[in-house]
UniProtKB/TrEMBL annotation:
Positions of the catalytic residues: 386 (nucleophile)
Primary localization: cytoplasm
Annotated Gene3D superfamilies: NusB-like, Sun protein, domain 3, Vaccinia Virus protein VP39
PANTHER family recorded: NOP2 YEAST -RELATED NOL1/NOP2/FMU SUN DOMAIN-CONTAINING, RIBOSOMAL RNA SMALL SUBUNIT METHYLTRANSFERASE B-RELATED
Catalysed reaction equations from the record: cytidine(967) in 16S rRNA + S-adenosyl-L-methionine = 5-methylcytidine(967) in 16S rRNA + S-adenosyl-L-homocysteine + H(+)
UniProt-recorded name of the protein: 16S rRNA (cytosine(967)-C(5))-methyltransferase
Domain SAM-dependent MTase RsmB/NOP-type per the UniProt entry, residue ranges: 170-448
Length: 454
């Protein structure tokens, strides 16, 4: 592995911290500008995501072997050491000596040569003593926090909701990379047609498991270079998110229904529903709060070719007079803590605070209120999140139902046997990696006919 890959990883992590970017955004931005070959891209991705994923444990190791606490290190030095320790402890096939040598080179290139000896000494000590390191256990919350780099306060909250053993399994399943899941651009493209196109391009694929048309793609480094992607034969969307479209399809709406997607970016649910409805089967209004989010939706709508989607820049937490009781279905995929997608955004767990969870709860409540006002009598509200936090899921829904007697919960029934274990109390409740899917929650609420908003 060349120094370029390690240097790229450090630069990505530096920018993530400096500009307060999510790690996937910092990674994508760097790879868009710097053309790394396939092996370098693979290495950089593993190193960046792995370092963030294990950050609390890496700092614990550094604090054991460094005279300078990790919290007081220069930022560049801290990232060089973190990535170095991650390679030594968690990446096979890499010589420890090479890790140390390349770390020293990076420090010198960054005009910090006076610290080269220090960096070299810390990493060589870790390499020499790695076999004697006592790895943390998993029998207490404190041990789980260290073993899985999960903030202790968050573990305490989740244990109160799910119990210790399910919490341990959640922590374990939140490590590693998530599979790349796609769906054919229904009804324009069927599953067999998509599989044939992927075969022609030499793209390995396998069934998703939960949905009959979902596929996992393996070893795809540059999605946008695939002809099948550019031609709009498929859309990237996790199976858990695809279930929202299947919930809408299960309603058998008939006629020409209006579906309002109030938090639509990047457009996966809107385009899925539009495809399931068909160009003459209904209309989808895809909304989001900012121009750049609408731009992402627009790119997917144009590539996939859905004339029955209209885009609007509006705030999901606001009730608009023109929306009042106008929609047959409202999709509210609310902003959330994201605990179901830690494999994709491992830095989420460090960004969350008790105060931020409270703020999210207030925003979710406002979005539910505004969304409910837009549903016709006899229409439906589909509330979803990509978190496993009960306060944002069941608790939020039950509070809404208590305050809005015109709505009732409608149990979700889908014709896929593989989903049966994840239908609890009428909700869809997925934990990460079950079936390869992300953690996800879906509730279906129906406004009674003849009942109008107060």
């Amino acid at each position: 592995m060349t120094e370029n890959g390690r240097m790229a990883a450090v630069r990505i992590l530096e920018r993530m911290e400096k500009e307060d970017l999510y790690v996937n955004r910092a990674m994508d931005d760097h790879l868009h500008v710097h053309d790394l070959d396939r092996e370098d891209r693979k290495f950089v991705s593993r190193l960046v995501y792995g370092t963030v994923e294990r950050m609390l444990y890496l700092d614990h190791v550094l604090d054991r072997y460094s005279k300078v606490p990790s919290a007081k290190m220069k930022k560049v030095v801290r990232w060089v050491l973190r990535t170095g320790v991650y390679q030594i402890l968690f990446m096979d096939g890499i010589r420890d000596a090479a890790v140390c040598d390349e770390a020293v080179k990076i420090i010198k290139k960054r005009k910090m040569g006076a610290l080269a000896g220090y960096v070299n000494a810390v990493l060589r000590t870790v390499a020499r003593e790695k076999d004697s390191l006592v790895h943390p256990g998993t029998e207490s919350l404190e041990e789980l926090s260290l073993a899985f780099s999960m903030p202790l306060w968050l573990l305490e909250k989740l244990q109160g909701q799910m119990g210790f053993e399910p919490l341990k399994e959640f922590c374990l399943q939140s490590l590693g990379s998530a599979p790349l899941c796609v769906r054919p651009n229904l009804p324009k493209v069927g599953l067999k047609e998509l599989e044939a196109a992927l075969d022609r391009e030499g793209v390995a694929h396998r069934p998703g498991g939960l949905l009959p048309y979902a596929l996992f793609l393996d070893k795809v480094e540059a999605l946008a270079k695939l002809e099948s992607f550019r031609k709009g034969l498929f859309q990237v969307q996790d199976q858990s998110s695809q279930l929202v479209g299947e919930v809408v399809r299960s309603l058998e709406l008939g006629g020409s229904p209006l579906v309002l997607d109030v938090c639509a970016a990047p457009g996966g649910k809107s385009t899925h529903v539009a495809g399931l409805l068909g160009p003459s089967g209904g209309r989808v209004v895809a909304r989001d709060i900012s121009p750049w989010k609408l731009e992402r939706i627009g790119e997917n709508v144009e590539r996939l070719g859905h004339p029955n989607i209209r885009m609007e820049e509006k705030d999901a937490s606001r009730a608009y007079g023109e929306d009042r009781e106008s929609a047959d279905v409202v999709l509210a995929d609310a902003p959330c803590s994201g605990l179901g997608i830690l494999r994709r955004k491992p830095d989420i767990k460090y960004r969350l605070t008790p105060d931020s969870l409270e703020s999210l709860g207030r925003l979710q409540k406002e979005i539910l209120e505004a969304s409910g006002a837009a549903v016709k009598p006899g229409g439906f509200l589909v509330y979803s999140t990509c978190t496993v936090n009960r306060e944002e899921n069941e608790d939020q829904v039950m509070r809404f139902l208590e305050e809005h007697k015109e709505f009732k919960q409608r149990p979700i029934h889908l014709p896929f046997g593989a989903l049966d274990p994840f239908l609890e109390e009428g909700f869809v409740k997925l934990m990460p990696k079950e079936g390869g899917a992300d953690g996800f929650f879906i509730a279906l609420l129906e406004k009674e006919k003849g009942q109008r908003n107060g």
